[in-house]
Amino acid sequence: MSITTFTEEHTEGYNLQWKIKSILHQEKSAYQEITVADTVQFGRCLILDGAMQITVQDAFIYHELMAHICLASHRQPRNVLIIGGGDGGIIKEVLKHPMVEKVTLVEIDERVVALSKKYLPEFSRSLDHPKVSVVIQDGFDFIAKHQNHFDVILVDSSDPSGPAAPLFSKKFYQLVQEALKQEGIFTAQIGSPLFELDKLKTVYERVKSLFPIARYYMASIPTYSTGPYSLIYGSKGIDPLSPRDVPYLEGLTQYYTPEIHRAAFALPPFIHNAIVGK
Ligand code: SAM
Question: pTM above the 0.95 mark?
Fold first, then answer.
């Protein structure tokens, strides 16, 4: 077996290097360069435009954190929208909540969905569930056509360059706010506090200006490798620090527990002071 390497150019002066057993697929889609590879340490992975997106080994941390924090906070999450997430990993977690009736996934790139179906079945199996509809469209355009419609919106996008850039704009957060019902909740991945504190502060302020409750939460995810990785939570009224009991998740999660739920919102002072203020 010949081992090659993939170098992720993360930030000026900071690269990550992965040992790769094999490249399973590589192509340039209409939106991005897509690579599916088998890594030595983290199993199969999806790389978009040279940025590592998910690995089979640790994606559960990110998927569980994004899905269960919102779904356990909402009192009756029935209608869920996911923007991005064409691999299906977030859907897999959302479907663990029996009260969810309908999940719509809006992914811009049909090739991500097709390649995930072929190479990443542990995530993509969920895409074929009868409660799930997959829409191939720009999430920005889709959400602009929906008002007062969803209980929960989960934004599992790539980083803010290329097709995902508009998903970090104030206009997009306003459209999310309008697309949510009265008790609605949303979350989005927003990046690394150690590398992108200014960006995180800008996102926090945009969300805070539109939602009565805006909170920042974190987990360490080895694939993203930069220490804590962060998400933003916005809601029209439900505080995530008082989640519902979710006994049905017991035994079904590898990362999420009610204790982890609350702990994820604990911020060290260098992050709290820079983002939320002193
Ligand atoms: N969890 C990963 C991370 O944080 O690195 C991201 C997962 S990856 C599946 C994100 C997906 O968002 C990609 O499949 C990409 O095609 C999709 N995406 C990017 N921009 C989008 C847009 N404007 N509308 C819908 N999907 C988009």
Answer: yes
